[in-house]
Amino acid sequence: MGETALKAGADTFAFFTRNPRGGKAKDIDEADAAALCALMKANSFAPIVVHAPYTLNACSDKSEVREYARMVFADDLKRMEATPNQLYNFHPGSDMKQGKEVGIKLIAEMLDSVLSESQTTTVLLETMAGKGSEVGSKFEELRAIMDSVELGGKLGVCLDTCHVHDAGYDIVNDLDGVLTEFDKIVGLDRLKAVHLNDSKNPFSSHKDRHERIGQGSIGLEAFGRIVNHPSLKNLPFILETPWETTEEYAEEIKLVRGLEK
User: Angle at the Cα of 182 (from 177 to 184), degrees rounded to 5?
Assistant: First the structure.
């Protein structure tokens, strides 16, 4: 994966720990992990942003679903130590109409059961679009989770541009205002990565459909401000746009790099 990232002109990348819809992960190849660490060091990679499966729901109304989330999460954090000091991103979950307060409590309980003082991985709560009963579409909800976790210092945030736009944070016309609000509620020191995605949906639609950079309702001009903002420009940026090939992503990476000043 590191070599593929280099081929595309990238200096970070993301991958799923297993099938994004769930299932058993492959055994860790220690030699391969060591080779990746060496490649990343040699090429001055930013931290990689590993993604938990979409099927995890730590605040489900079903105990067996919450237990599955806990088991996968614990296994993933153990596996992450093969590539130390990286980032592990997850969707906080859907409260299944139990209410945000209950959802936040259940997410915090799961995190308390899997986080450890010795881990080198920082776990990232992803900003969500707010569809259905998703937890995490408001900065206050992310902060409430962090405040409820005993080892809250092991947590950070991944800001998804499509999600926050769809959630009603106006990053197109008031990026400074959105980041100021984030700083007041969560703290910019907790912002560790950005998922860079345009949106197929209009502002504040509370949906979640990613679009290629510059081809959606956020637009290329706004992405120029995002990638150059002093509070964001040194963070790892991860594309989750609907391309299929390395060559297509290479062109989009070139497009984004062309926005840098």
Answer: 95
DSSP string, 209-229: -EE-TTSSSS-HHHHHHHHH-
Q: Which residue from 54, 45, 59, 37 is spatially nearest to 8, judged by alpha carbons?
A: 45
The end-to-end CA distance of the chain, in Å, is 28
Of the listed 18, 198, 210, 252, which one is catalytic? 210
Catalytic residue status for 21: yes
Q: Given the residues 143, 163, 165, 190, select the one marked as catalytic.
A: 163
pLDDT tens sequence for the chain (261 residues): 899 999 999 999 999 988 888 778 889 999 999 999 999 999 999 999 999 999 999 999 999 999 999 999 999 999 999 999 999 999 999 999 999 999 999 999 999 999 999 999 999 999 999 999 999 999 999 999 999 999 999 999 999 999 999 999 999 999 999 999 999 999 999 999 999 999 999 999 999 999 999 999 999 999 999 999 999 999 999 999 999 899 999 999 999 999 999
Q: Is-catalytic flag, 206?
A: no
Which of 3, 32, 54, 101 is labelled catalytic? 54
208 carries an active-site annotation:
yes
Catalytic annotation present for 169:
no
Q: Cβ distance 90 to 126 under 8 Å?
A: yes
pLDDT at 12: 97
Catalytic, out of 76, 95, 134, 160: 160
Reduced to 3 states (helix: H, G, I; strand: E, B; else coil), residue 75 is helix
Instruction: Measure Cα distances from 147 to 86, 111, 126 in Å.
Output: 22, 12, 16
DSSP class of residue 94 equals: B
Catalytic residue (choose from 68, 143, 195, 249) = 195
